[in-house]
Amino acid sequence: MILLHQLWNQRRQNLWIFAELLIVGFFLWMVVDPVFVLTANRLIDQGGDVRGMYVFGLYQYDTSFGQYDAAQDSAPVMRRHYLSIVRALKDCPEVESVAITTNGGFPNSQSWNGMMLYGADSTRLHVQCYEFVSLEGSDLPHTCGMRDARTNRRIALPADFAARGQIAISRRTAIALCGTPDAVGRTVYTDSRLTQPCQVAAVFHDYKNYTSEQPYPLAVIATPDLSTSPYMGLTYPVVLRLRPEADARAFESRFAREVAPSLPRGNFFASTLQTFDSYSRQQALVSGITGKLRLQYALGGFALLCIFLGMTGTFYVRTRTRRAEIGLLCALGASRASVVRRFLLEAWVLVTVAYALSLIAVAHYAFISGFAESLRAAGDAAYLLAPDPAYVQNRPWAHFCLVSVLVYVLLLLTALAGTCLPAGRAARIGPAAALREE
Q1: Which of 3, 162, 202, 299 is 20 to 30 Å apart from 433, CA to CA?
Q2: Which domain holds residue 258?
Q3: In 10 A of CB 15, how many CB atoms?
Q4: pLDDT (tens digit per residue) in 269-305
Q5: Is residue 339 part of a domain?
Q6: Is residue 20 within 8 Å of residue 27, measured between CB atoms?
Q7: Cα–Cα distance measured from residue 99 to residue 162, given in angstroms and rounded to the nearest whole number
Q8: Could you read off the pLDDT of 28-63 as tens digits, one per residue?
Q9: DSSP-assigned letters across all residues of 225-261
Q10: How many CA atoms lie within 13 A of 349 on its CB side?
Q11: What's the distance, CA 420 to chain centroid?
């Protein structure tokens, strides 16, 4: 009761602070939420082991280069040279496996391939598609470190995976189309008439394509041969995986010194060998993802700093203007700790009530803006864009509550920090000085 009475006596000053807290609570929630989502997405596990992965850049001369040789430009010659280069890479003693991929067929690649898959009950799902060429022992799941969703071991595809037109799918894809992650041996289809069946050869953990995004439903398929594309080096990049015991730095040094100079064949020439981490950072920078993340974090940090300084200053001034009251309490025998606790309790009540009211506006804005759009049944076409409920940022109420608690803690810490310091200093005033000020 004493606390409420004190707040009422200071109602004119508290009303302005209360209004500020309402506005700050709303905007701080809007600032923290996207930062929370971005951070939560980045913390999602890759879904496989990318250590020891390299992306090999292979390019070719065209007619604009003086080194171009028209006699080496026929499809059979290009195929022979290309596979010879892949074989040379595979024969490096440090290399465990290679994958001849399509341009959008590996994580963080420069392109994005998608397709529609159908379950036996005509359930449809849009998936991202990784495609590789099954020549020279090319094995994309093994090279990309994908692991079996049931055993957590490296995926071992059948030798006739490409010849039989089989498919490997992610755990989320299996659940959506087959109703269970244990879908090996089941059949999915690539057309709505269910006339193009693909047997599921493996189910792997959900795998992230981009570091800053969530895993998308994914499928891995293989083609038994190369096409006759005139841009074969650009169309089919090569991904390498080193043996666990290999020394990465020694390999990179030896590759640049011994292997790379021997790789050019015909119109093909070797350009770069990058670690997967380096390649991913480069692609994120080129595609604008890095700039977007930096901008969001910078805006969020700047807003938090402004709010922190403004709120701290407000509570600091509020407490300083009551210095005489604090001194009088001390003169009447109140301890310094009890005085500080009283002012902290007032700040807590103001922040809690104001933030509780601001959450009404936050909830209204968040839910009407589609932030909390509910998941739909797998048979609904809207399921194509449904978020995966396995992640907390996709569960509307859990997401809302978690961000709300985080914002409340930030607001409360700011208010308490702005109250504690001036209240503690004022509580040191002597009784005589307090009575003079009063």
Answers
A1: 3
A2: 53-287
A3: 10
A4: 877 889 998 888 888 787 777 787 788 788 777 777 7
A5: yes
A6: no
A7: 13
A8: 888 888 888 888 888 898 899 999 999 998 888 877
A9: S----TTHHHHS-EEEEE-TTS-HHHHHHHIIIIIGG
A10: 16
A11: 38
